[in-house]
Amino acid sequence: MKTYFCMVVLLSTFLLAPTTWATEISPDTSPDILVNHTAQEILAIIKQNKDIQSGKNKAKMLDLVETKILPHFNFMRMTRLAMGKNWSKAAPRQQREIVDQFRTLLVRTYYKALSVYSDHTIKVTPLKDIGGSTDVTVKTQVIRSHGQPVPIDYSMGKTSNGWKVYDVTVAGVSLIINYRGSFNSQIRRGGVEGLLKTLADKNRTLDAKDKEKRQR
To answer: Three-state SS across the chain?
Structure first.
């Protein structure tokens, strides 16, 4: 449940951040402005598409996630951190396959977060001059209609293609650390191939559930 909440809020932040900037995105765009710019574009799409608002059109929701949100994530780094010391135990082929399966799992499990946005707003804390830093934390808060604000910290690293998210911490709970526990447990039981099989099995199960729902 903690992992689910992390990802829902993570995606929702990109959807709901205040539209106060209108800067064009480039590799030099600062990470806080990147979050806000992305939110503007996605909000415009959602407001024009009732199917995405209702959460009923999986294809459109997945396309929006794939094209507008996921390019801002560094899944290689996320997977490497989630595996911790076990990353070096995996062969290059296994590393690539685990990254692909982990990415697919996150997308297929949490794409419906796109429809969770109606009664929330987001406050993004602008970064001060980051100078030559290549690793920063962007702090935000989810302001809900009921309950206390939820603090969310984005760990972002600068790459040749701009700033990318590699971890998100929601109310003190790190997405990466949360997955690291389960990854380590699976590797202890079945090795790296065991982890790869577990991820692939979960993705197949999610696919089967989606097909079953569409056939009803």
So the answer is: CHHHHHHHHHHHHHHHCCCCCCCCCCCCCCHHHHHHHHHHHHHHHHHCCHHHHHCCCHHHHHHHHHHHHHHHECHHHHHHHHHHHHHHHCCHHHHHHHHHHHHHHHHHHHHHHHHCCCCEEEEECCCCCCCCCCEEEEEEEEEECCCCCEEEEEEEEEECCEEEEEEEEECCEEHHHHHHHHHHHHHHHHHHHHHHHHHHHHHHHHHHHHHHHHHC
Q: Is 147 left (phi over 0), alpha (psi -120 to 50) or beta?
A: left
Residue position matching structure tokens 């296994």: 94
Average pLDDT over residues 168-187: 91
Q: What is the pTM of this model?
A: 0.81
CATH number of the CATH domain containing 175: 3.10.450.710
Enclosing domain of residue 165: 2-215
- When divided into structural domains, the chain yields a total of 1
**Span 125-165, pLDDT tens digits:** 899 888 889 999 988 877 777 778 888 888 999 999 999 99
Give the HSE-up count for residue 106: Cα atoms under 13 Å, Cβ half-sphere. Answer: 26
Range from 18-32, 35-49, 94-108, 163-177 carrying the lowest mean pLDDT: 18-32
Tell me the C-alpha distance between 7 and 174, whole Å: 10
